[in-house]
Fold Outer membrane protein beta-barrel domain-containing protein.
Amino acid sequence: MQFRYFFLIVLFSLNSFGQGGTFGKNPIINNENHDKQRVHWGYFLGFSSYDYQFKYLTVGKDIELQKTTGFNVGLVGNLRLTEYFDLRFEPGFYATQRNLVYPDIEDSVDQLREVKAANLHFPLLLKYSALRTGNIRPFLLGGVSATLNLGSNEKAPDDNSSDRFRVKTWTQNYEVGFGIDLYLEYFKFSPSIRGVFGMNDELIRDKDPNSPWTGDIQSMKTRAIFVNFTFH
């Protein structure tokens, strides 16, 4: 669903501005020297979808994960390295929720665990930009990030036996994505989509080693999709 929204917005933008001479056959070149700045700043808004990748100790019914769409907001700092490469720091706030449903648990209350997250996300990314054509310039992104989950419950003394699901406060990830720079008259607009892949096990186990919520999980790692709309 996020991919569909992303491409619809990009296509609508290209069509709208194309009619106005910005992205037509002979466009008026906007912000011609924007990318020559050594350092520039911006901000982004967007939405995200978080998932978990589970690995289990035994063969059985998988945990069902119900994803929700969260929102993102943050800042962008861009350092120009060469004509085609930039180093970017994009600290942001990401709010999301994941619902875990345990099919082997019959009680409806114990069967559901809501994993809410208020994440401070700190990615350091390398951006490769293709040759600019008129007012359009596609790019690729890749790098590493650290995430601080303000609602992790890591230090909480209670566990799932008291209806409290716990995850680690800090996680590390790698990220890859792509996007398009659209040069408008007064600013640059950059829609992008990025995949985020957690590298470490995030689960805090319950005190009971045979817990029906955590006992059979070997590892639990974040998987996420970010769709951001950057203005700079």
Residues 2-231 form a domain with the Porin fold (CATH 2.40.160.20). Residues 16-20 have pLDDT under 50 and may be disordered.
